[in-house]
Amino acid sequence: MTTVETAIGTSKTMVLNMGPQHPSTHGVLRVLLELDGENVVTAVPDLGYLHTGIEKSCEDKTYSQAITLTDRMDYLNPLGNNLVYCLAVEKLLNLEIPKRAQYIRVMMVELQRISSHLVWLGTHALDMGAMSVMLYCFREREEILKIFERFSGQRMMTSYIRIGGLALDPPAGWRELVKRFLDMMPARIDEYEELLTNNRIWHGRLKGVGYLPAETLIAMSTTGPGLRAAGVAFDNRKAFPYSSYEEFEFNVPTRTESDCFARYLVRVQEMRESLKIVRQATDKITDQGPIKSEAPGIVPPQREKMKTEMEALIYHFKIFTEGFSPPPGEVYVPTESPRGELGCFIASDGSPKPLRVHFRGPSFVNLQALPLMVKGQLIADTVASIGTIDIVLGEVDR
Amino acid sequence: MPQLANANAGVVIDRLRAWKSESVTQVIEYRGETTIVVPHRLLLATAGQCKTDPELNFDQLSDATCVDRFPNEPRFELNYQLLSIPRLARIRLRTSVSGQQPVIDSLEPVWPGANWMEREIFDLFGIRFEGHSDLRRILLPDEFEGAPLRRDFPVEGKR
Q1: What class, spelled out in words, does domain A54-397 have in CATH?
Q2: Which of A23, A91, A110, A348 is deepest in the core (most CB within 10 A)?
Q3: Among partner residues B133, B142, B149, which is closest to A55 by beta-carbon distance?
Q4: Nearest beta carbon to residue B60 from set A59, A90, A221
Q5: B109 touches chain A (CB under 8 A)
Q6: Residue B38 counted as domain residue
């Protein structure tokens, strides 16, 4: 296997460096391409340009402090990262979350899924030369970011999902805001499909490109839309439901061709399914109700109580200085991020800081399949394949 | 709370014990998850059995993680999350290696997806995986010295 050190090519091949600064690598990804003319013989990804030591930093923080670090891994899915981490901590603590908080979590995570797929579609289309699609996708994504800003004060790094529930109550008028988005969005997705799905150039660039059979994908630990486009209907929201997903009705789109075009169709349909879930969530979420569990010593008390009651003040102080200590043990929580299985493994040693936090990032694992995908293809197809895996380097490198 | 198919755990333990009684040294049930502790010399064989046994059929390795239990020995605890897509079942295999000899068999022959996961553990913990096709650093620069995720490596780094 060609490694970075030995990538000097042979007399017939040439090694070309792609990245880490490159418009089409979707972040700081470096890929060494051994080329025979325009065809790729080997591709060797070189990672680590965005490695910031998040997992190590989490060990130095209390469990609640680490939430803000999780936003920054897969930065197109901060709410999903918050959720998987909080679910893992809540599992360690054996903490029940009120249904209303769970429904709001589902709604936010599905809105995040749509916004992530919009970025994917926009950038993928831009790579293929369909530049207008990018602007349309980002226009819709702007509406979702506005919703996040109303809820949490932040467009991207929301840290809205906290241990025990949510950071804040949904803002006044949130229902109208979300419903307005829901009413507008289906027609916009139809617009994207009108531009791309029956487009001959789109077919030419994507059909038959980046094909991998299902057995290979399963063996390479691929999950998410890449696996579902190969006919394997595996989705953690259905297989191992979390955060009340079992109460929502939605389909898991699959295709069988397992090429870039199939993955495109799967993700576009996933956007529609997410809209369904958000709509059901807006019906399920009551106007009044708890957004956090009642767990003194773990979940911070309401601010009004903290300002008037002595016990609440003491709990608040203890939680934000020392933190809480889950019992010793290990848990692994798998969730379905827009990219695949996003898992969080936490080992607790009974102290207020985690012993080990590991995030199983789908981008990292799915990217393993890239060298297999691009073998024998053209350089232009490499760009399509990198895009179709849908990687976010923050999650690849952590 | 996600159910990690506890009903499946009994099947896995029985089949593994029937195949080789010493493959399962300990079973830990916690928060609905089952962890099977395997002696490190039997890890590769047990993993292969988990994949090939038709009643177990763990066709995908979801995650491979290391926990540094310093200063306790054995120091490095390796956790492998297995997933059976046809049976929708999950289980965890755990083994430990000592700090003096942090070497273990690579599971890449069983699940090729273990490639980068093991490279990451090699990179950040310094554990060698015998039989790995391409064991070298993945996230840190090649010239980096040390294993930063070990507990005795300072979070600020060494410079």
Answers
A1: mainly alpha
A2: A110
A3: B149
A4: A221
A5: no
A6: yes
